[in-house]
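Ticket #4471: structure output looks truncated?

Reporter: J.K.
Steps to reproduce: submitted the chain below (163 residues) through the standard prediction queue, then opened the result file.
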Amino acid sequence: MPVYTVHAPKSLGNDFRAAPEKVVFVRDGFHVWALLLGFVWLIYRRLWLVLLGYIVVQIAAEIVLRLTHASSFAHFVVMLVIALFLGTEAGSLRRWTLSRRKWQQIGLVAADDEEAAERRFFERASFDSFAYPAKTSSSVPMPRSSIVAHDAAGFFPMPDGSR
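Returned output as attached by the reporter:
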């Protein structure tokens, strides 16, 4: 079952339910379209800095392969490795871009597809029981967004939480 990280702009603060259309779900795992159509996928996702790095790596690899008079098989293998890297790391590169744009990770959801992930996340967010009160050494409570971000989809029990 795919795992999705949930991101929202920091400008929303802790109230991401006020503007649910601004919440973004990023699937973790291999992205086939990033492998097959890397350039187009990066433009579609608006990952401009990653696109620039991708172009630089492609050009540098092409120059090195031409200067070394590499065979067409070696050329194919190098370009395949670059494409495999992009397909494998596409989700991480998208999360990195969101963090650069001042977005925060507010949750983690496991679901069959993005629509089911959205439903599950917002259903869970509507209940107050999904975020346990934080036990800290001081009496200052932990912000709600950080509790949600470290929930890890309920896989790890919280200290002094219900069992």
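Triage note (M.O.): checked the attachment and the full token line is present. Helices lie at 32-36, 38-44, 48-67, 72-100, 114-126, 144-149.
Status: closed, working as intended.
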